[in-house]
Amino acid sequence: MELLDIAGVGPVTARLLAEAGMATVASVAGADPVTMAAIRRIGPAKAESIKMEAQRLVATTEPGPNSEPGTPATDREQRAKELQKQAKQLRKQARRQSKKAKSAKSKKQRKRLSNEAAKLKKAAGKARRKAQKLLAG
């Protein structure tokens, strides 16, 4: 398991965390959010979400006594499944926004709703690609 497996941690954030002495997911899970927030480019909210996600990853890697059949075998598969679900929800929201944009009365409102729909579609595509990447490697 790598730092990049933590949701919200990209290559730059992973490097910054490693430079601050948090090179493993377990060390991030046990770190103080205030210490993480002191790192450049990581604010208090992001530090808290990174810590919570790291704790979730650490908890899912420890085998439970009552593992149910049909559950994802690895953390990557679990995360990919969550990303696929998130992508589906984002696409649904984008369709709703597009529909609202078509029925909007003012040009300004149509443009705003269309832009929001485009952002949602972009986020859905990004989540879908990340899920595919997790499943591939």
Model description:
The structure is a single chain. The chain is mostly helical and 137 residues long. It has 2 domains: 3-61, 5' to 3' exonuclease, C-terminal subdomain (DNA polymerase, domain 1, Orthogonal Bundle); 75-136. It has 6 helices and no strands. The chain has helices at residues 11-19, 25-29, 33-37, 44-61, 75-103, 107-136. Helix 5 (75-103) packs antiparallel against helix 6.
- Taken together, the total number of domains comes to 2
Structural class: mainly alpha
Radius of gyration: 18 Å
Proportion in β-strands = under 5%
Average pLDDT level: 84
Distance between the termini: 12 Å
Largest sheet: none
Q: Number of DSSP helices?
A: 6
How much helicity do the residues have?
over 70%
SS elements, strand count:
0
Low-confidence stretches: none
Shape: elongated
Give the H and E element order. HHHHHH
Layout: helices, strands, pairs:
Blueprint (H helix, E strand, L loop, with lengths): L10 H9 L5 H5 L3 H5 L6 H18 L13 H29 L3 H30 L1
Helix pairs in contact: 5-6
Give a summary of the structure in a few sentences.
By secondary structure, the protein is an all-alpha fold. The chain is built from six helices and no strands. The mean pLDDT is 84.
Defining traits:
mainly alpha, 137 residues, 6 helices
